[in-house]
């Protein structure tokens, strides 16, 4: 996939390199989270204009960078008003997610029981994350939903994944308190960059 150039791309990659110098997964994700917050707050990175265009019918996923050596990927997500996800996992991959624009409602869940194709969860917490905030997911604490609660404005988030995430498990509620496990293939929407 074509990797776009955009203002501040090198600053973003420097933050990722700094995180990889850390000795543990927890330290890596904390360093990356703090660095991402700093980049958003300081307006050091300007994402490609197409990232600000929602896609009808689903939240948009646009890959901005894929590291050929480590496999790390950077994906911008565009959330139209009301768009969101079901409970899902990250297939055992760590991730750092930063809110670039707008607000996102993030609800974290803990897996209580896994019976193969059915699972039980308890809700851990719901956060309203605003512009300039970031969080990290480190397995096994990876189950969550994301939703744009605004009924008029889009939200943008930037996600740094340990490896390319082409699919994930999703969990749809049943009437008995259990959730049915499914698999979702994650598509990437086109990236256009008119800046450089």
Describe this structure in words.
The structure is a single chain. With 196 residues, the protein is mainly beta. The protein has a single domain (9-185), classed as Sandwich (Jelly Rolls). The protein is 15% helix and 40% strand. The protein has two helices and eleven strands. The chain has helices at 9-20, 25-41; strands at 60-66, 73-79, 87-88, 95-101, 103-114, 118-130, 134-137, 143-147, 155-161, 167-173, 179-185. The strands form two sheets. A six-stranded antiparallel sheet has the order 3-10-11-6-5-8, with no helix packed on it. It has a five-stranded antiparallel sheet with strand order 1-2-9-4-7, covered by helices on one side. Strand 5 (103-114) and strand 6 form a beta hairpin. The radius of gyration is 16 Å and the shape is globular. The two termini are 18 Å apart.
